[in-house]
Here is the input.
Amino acid sequence: MTNYRDRPDAIAALVQDDRVHRDVYLSEELFALEQERFFATTWLFAGHASQVPQAGDYWSLELAGRPVMMVRQTDGSVRMFYNRCAHKGAQLVSEESGNTGKFFRCPYHAWSYKLDGKTLAIPFKSGYEGTRLSECESGQGLTPLPQVVNYRDFIFVRLSKEGPAFADYFGEVLQSIDNLADRSPEGRLSVGGGVLRNIIQCNWKMYLENINDAVHPMSTHESATQAAAALWHGHGADEPKPMAMEQILPFGSGYEFFDKMGGRVFANGHSLLGVNFSIHSGYAQLPDYEAALQAAHGAERAHEILQRSPQNCVLFPSLAVKGSPQVMRVIRPLSANRTLIEAWSFRVAGAPELMFERAMSYNRLVFSPMSVVAHDDVRIFESLQKGLHADGNEWVSLHRGFDAAEYSATTLTTNGTNELLMRNQFRAWAKFMAPQPPASSS
Ligand code: FES
Ligand SMILES: [Fe+2]
Here is the structure.
């Protein structure tokens, strides 16, 4: 077994120009290092503010093995703390979500904390007189996460004190969140309809790569698209389609369609697939909604918002959003060979309910493990995780479209089937797996 911890050169050697070594998917040692380095210094999506609408609402989750919680404050802001009592470490909340009222109370010895994390009360406090409790971490109340940014209600955190500043880390790719949020004439989204969860026996990178894989639908999803095409056979091209048909049929578009949709990469592993058009571009127009959007944002901005319907935008490494339908996928790595995927639908304030129905329908049809699409992908991901144990070839090919000039270009827009979008993810992975975080600011 390679000792990766003490050998940054060995980690760097796993990511070559046009291929990656199988250990990036298989090694538990690398996964432990990812928890410590990669997921600590990159910015992770924690949740959407609408998951905690009222003061006292909390949402607890694990981020890179750490228990954390989002808490809505009385002033309307959202704060994030570790879900860990300052006394001996019990988790303050055990439910995933709920309302704690005006304070948190630990179930072990009943220390209590205000919503802002400050200690409210300690039972039988006289026992601490003359001790050093107040100088110790345990006397400081709940530990806030060191770096938290609320970008248009999307809450991101950086677990390490060191690392790139939020704006530097994401840069222009934040426009994909603007595009999603601005689809609301009121500028407000809220999650709705529950969450679809799927634990897949594969490495998280396979899932993220696949989000940018525009050459697999033709083969992997052949049966679903052929079945849809057979059902719709005989209908006119302009005939209005039922929602499910409108959403599934475009998956059957050929290689050329997916190639021409175009892709773009950004520094730090982020990407946009479908810069020109996508499988979502052909959804039926909604004239009243478009008028409301023009009234809210002006004709030019409304046009700009609506004409962009990217297939996927990856905010590496934990979030993928679409502008239309209004959905997001959250990627939660659990171990080297287990990944939790969450698919959420958004309700768009000021928009017709039909748009929410589209989001719900899309999630059910495409991202649910019981859907006609995701089960094909899940089967492949689990097969990859097993197949890579074979002898004779320890490498995964990312050669499609490789061009050495891609290292020097600052803005990289390319054809949709170029595996540059995947190479870009691995280059960022190698960078953030270095023992020291690459850029230190904020
Ligand atoms: S561990 Fe929470 S009060 Fe003791
Ligand atoms: Fe797929």
User: Anything to note?
Assistant: The chain has two domains: 46-151, 167-432. The two ends are 37 Å apart (CA to CA).
